[in-house]
Every structure is written in structure tokens, then in C-alpha cells.
Design brief:
single chain; 181 residues; 2 domains; five-stranded antiparallel beta sheet; three-stranded mixed beta sheet
Length: 181
């Protein structure tokens, strides 16, 4: 994942490029030390940032199985009042939560769970490489990505598209509609 803030695991640190530093865009990094990976991801996304995992010499495939040992840049990281303001990022709409507090992370998880209910033999939404849409519409969120579905015989159907309209908050998301085509 592309990151504005990095989270490190296994006790090793990795420095981010200064241009991508959240302090350059006026954001205070929350302290994530001791949190499970999935909780840390929600916290970072709630302040409008993306996360980059660093497992040292190991690949982080399932962040929920990891515990954060440090955050880079270190938290708390108050912004420099004399620093010039950075321009608004072009993808800021994707980073914002709905007025009720629904982020992309919360909406994509709810959409994936609804897809699993609809396709019990297997569904895999490609939220990173196959993301097609993520926008806030009023107090709900529309997320859309390519997906792979599997039937009872194990046959996979690739490059399907899943679109979900999700409302509510990260704590209690509601999938108002799900379409797979």
C-alpha cells in the first residue's frame, strides 16, 4: 500500500521520503504502538492517511496477525506552525470519511463481507490494484473494484466488478446495495 505514514513491525524502522511525510501536510500522527495491525490501519485511515507496513525481512500479508512496535514518523508529531501549507491532495475525496464516520476501509470491509454472504464458495475483491471507484455521496460511500468469484465446483470467474453502496459508520456499516457484474 502507498503510505503517507509508515508502521513498522519486528522492531525495525524504515524512514519515509520527506515529501510523503504527514507533517508536511499538517497531520498529527497518532501513537499506534501496541495496536494490532487492523486496528492501526483503521486509526490511520480515520485521520485521512494511508499505511505502509514494514515487517523487516518478512512480508506483511495479514496485518491483523501483527502488533505495531513503532510508528514512523514517531508519534506524537505536532506540525510546525511556520511550515508552509501543502496543497490539497488530488485524491482527498478518497481519504475523507462520511459525516457519520465511514471510511474507505470500513466500506470495503463491509462490502467484502456482503460479497461473502452472496457468494459463499469464495469472493475476493481487489481493493488495491483493482479499485475502480471510491467516493462519498451524501452520508454514504460508493466503493467499486474488480473481483474474483468462485462457484461450488471451485471454478473461478475473474475480472467481475463489485459495487457497493454503504452507509453508517466504521463501527456499524450498512451495505445498502451490492451488485456484482
Amino acid at each position: 500500500m502507498v503510505a503517507a505514514a509508515g508502521v513498522v513491525g519486528c522492531g525495525e524502522e524504515k524512514k519515509n521520503d520527506a515529501a510523503a511525510s504527514p507533517s508536511a501536510v499538517g497531520v498529527t500522527i497518532p501513537d499506534l504502538s501496541g495496536q494490532k495491525g487492523n486496528s492501526a490501519k483503521q486509526t490511520i485511515e480515520s485521520v485521512g492517511l494511508r499505511i505502509k507496513w514494514d515487517g523487516g525481512d518478512k512480508t506483511v500479508l495479514a496485518p491483523e496477525n501483527w502488533t505495531v512496535v513503532s510508528t514512523d514518523p514517531a508519534a506524537p508529531n505536532a506540525t510546525d506552525e511556520d511550515a508552509p501549507e501543502a496543497p490539497e491532495p488530488a485524491v482527498s475525496e478518497r481519504l475523507d470519511a462520511t459525516p457519520s464516520g465511514l471510511t474507505f476501509g470500513g466500506a470495503s470491509v463491509a462490502c467484502t463481507q456482503a460479497g461473502k454472504a452472496q457468494f459463499p464458495y469464495g469472493v475476493k475483491a481487489h481493493w488495491i490494484i483493482g479499485m475502480l471507484d471510491d467516493r462519498v455521496v451524501g452520508d454514504s460511500r460508493v466503493v467499486k473494484a474488480t473481483t474474483t468469484i468462485k462457484n461450488a465446483y471451485g471454478t473461478k470467474r475473474k475480472d467481475q466488478v463489485v459495487e457497493c453502496h454503504v452507509s453508517g459508520s466504521d463501527a456499524a456499516p450498512r451495505v445498502d446495495s451490492i451488485t456484482v457484474s
